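User: Some background: our group keeps a shared notebook of sequences we're curious about, and every so often someone picks one and asks for a predicted structure to add to the entry. Today it's my turn. The entry only has the sequence so far, pasted here. Could you supply the structure so I can complete it?
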Amino acid sequence: MEHLGWLTIAMRLAMAMALGACVGIERELADRTAGFRTHSLVALGAAAFGTMSLFDTGSPSRIAAQVVTGVGFLGAGAILREGLNVKGMTT
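Assistant: Of course. Here's the predicted structure to add to the notebook entry:
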């Protein structure tokens, strides 16, 4: 594995947050429940855990698998039911 410097790690995290923010801005403009802040922070967290998994000497895929589980949990929490109508399925 290549050595990752602090600048490389910071740039990767910033890029993930910026891309998450782009998705979040689009969701805000469409007046959806999960918006700018939610998507930015989820993208930043996923990138942080993904980067930490690079330093795991045991099984790097272990941490990534848990990130996928966490994002799925957040997605399930964004689904709202109002009477017979369901909102947030595409979020």
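Suggested note for the entry: The helical segments are 6-29, 36-53, 61-77. The chain has a mean pLDDT of 81.
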